[in-house]
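#lab-general

N.A. 3:47 PM
ok so I finally got the sequence cleaned up, no stray characters, all 100 residues accounted for. can someone with queue access submit it? mine expired

B.Y. 3:52 PM
send it over

N.A. 3:53 PM
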Amino acid sequence: MINSISMFTQTQGVQQANKLTATPYEAQQNFAATLKDAIAQVNAQQIQSDTLTNKLINGGDVDLHEVMIASQKASITLNATMEVRNKVVEAYQEIMRMSV
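B.Y. 4:20 PM
back already:
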């Protein structure tokens, strides 16, 4: 079974539900929780890939294609996370360069 690798599909419904009723503090907490969940999902993908790779190396009952799919999912998820991080850092640097 192949699951989607999108990090943001689960959060879109939460963001829309909280859009009208959240205070700034609540919005900040929701954003932090969403970010933490997304990073936890990336970590889970990495751990699953490592586990399957170790099983394959040790001669466990795992198919090569499952290991390759898990590895690619982990790689794509990590690359997407790095791109998001780079965009956030770029935006922060641009804001810091703005004259007041």
